[in-house]
Amino acid sequence: MKHPEFEADHRADRRTWLVFAAFMLASYFEKALSDRHEFLRAGSEHPDLPWLTQATSHVVIVAMVPFITTMLSRFPMSADRWRPNLAIHALGTVAFSVVHILLMVMLRKLLTPMVFGFPYNFGLTDLSSWLYEYRKDVLTYALIAAIFWMNRVVEQRTLETEATRTEAKDRHRLTLKSGGRTFFVNADDVIWAKAASNYVEVGTPAKTHLARMTLTELERLLEEAGDHHARVHRSYIVHLDHVSVITPTGEGDAVIELDTGETVPGSRRYRDRYAPAG
Fold first, then answer.
1. CA distance readout (Å), 170 to 159, 166, 167
2. Neighbouring residues of 31: CB distance < 8 A, sequence distance ≥ 6
3. In this predicted model, what pLDDT tens digit does every residue of 164-219 receive, in sequence order?
C-alpha cells in the first residue's frame, strides 16, 4: 500500500502533465515559427529546418521530465532541506543538459539527411555550443521543476486539509499550525477566536494559540466538529455556551460578554446566529 503523500504527488503529476503537454505544444509552434521567420529573412535554402530541430529538442525534453520529477521526489525543495538539495539539483541541470544535447543531436543527425538531404552539424567539439544550450536548459529544468513542485504542494495542502477535517469530524479535535509546530485542541475548549491578519487567535481555558489559517477555515472545522460555536462578527467566533450577556449597542450591533469576563463585538449581520429571535 502506497503512502497517501506519494499518491498525492502522483495525482498532482498527472494533472500537471496535461498542462505541461499543452505548454510544450505551444512552445514548439512558437519557437519553430520564429526560427523559420528568421531563416526566411536570412535567405536560407531550408527555411523549414526549424520544424525538425525544434521537434527533436522538445521531444527529448518531454522524455526527460520523469528524470526531473524523480529528482524532486528524492531531493525535495522543502523548507528544511532546500539548501543541500538545491546543490544536487544544480548538478541535475548539468546531467539534464548533457543528455538533452546528445539525444537531440543524435536525432537531428539521423533525421536531417532523410528529410532535407544534407548532414546536420551541431559542433559538439565547440564548448560555446554546449554553454549556449546549457543556459537554456537550466531555465527549462527550473521551469519544469517549479511547475511540478508547486502542483505537488497544492495537492499536499489539499491532503492536509482533508486530514484536518477528518480529525475534527471523527475526534472533535482541531489541528492548528504555527511557526512550524502543530497543536491539537479539543473543539469544545475553544471559547473564542479572532482573526489576526493571516492568522487566527484561538482562546482556550489553558492559553491562546496563534494559528496560521483564516477565520472561515476555522469556522468550517468547528462545524465539522459539531460544537456549539457561531460567527458573531466578521472577525470573531464564540462558543455560545460561554455567552453570558448580550448588550445591544444600537443599529442591530451588540457587545457579547463571555463567562470568562472577556467581551467581543457582535455584528447585526450575524445577529441571528448568536441572538435568535424569541
1. 16, 6, 5
2. 50, 54
3. 888 888 888 998 887 778 889 999 999 999 998 889 999 999 889 999 889 999 99
Give dist(CA 178, CA 196) in Å, integer. Answer: 13
CATH number of 172-274: 2.40.50.1020
Mean pLDDT score, 31-40: 94
| Beta-carbon-side half-sphere exposure of residue 250 (alpha carbons within 13 Å) | 0
Spans of all domains in the chain:
4-162, 172-274
What kind and span of H or E run contains 132?
Answer: helix 127-171
**Contact of 50 with 39, CB cutoff 8 Å:** yes
- For strands 253-258 and 263-266, give the pairing: antiparallel
pLDDT tens digit sequence for 263-277 = 999 999 998 888 765
> Which residues 6+ apart lie within 8 Å of 84 measured at CB?
none
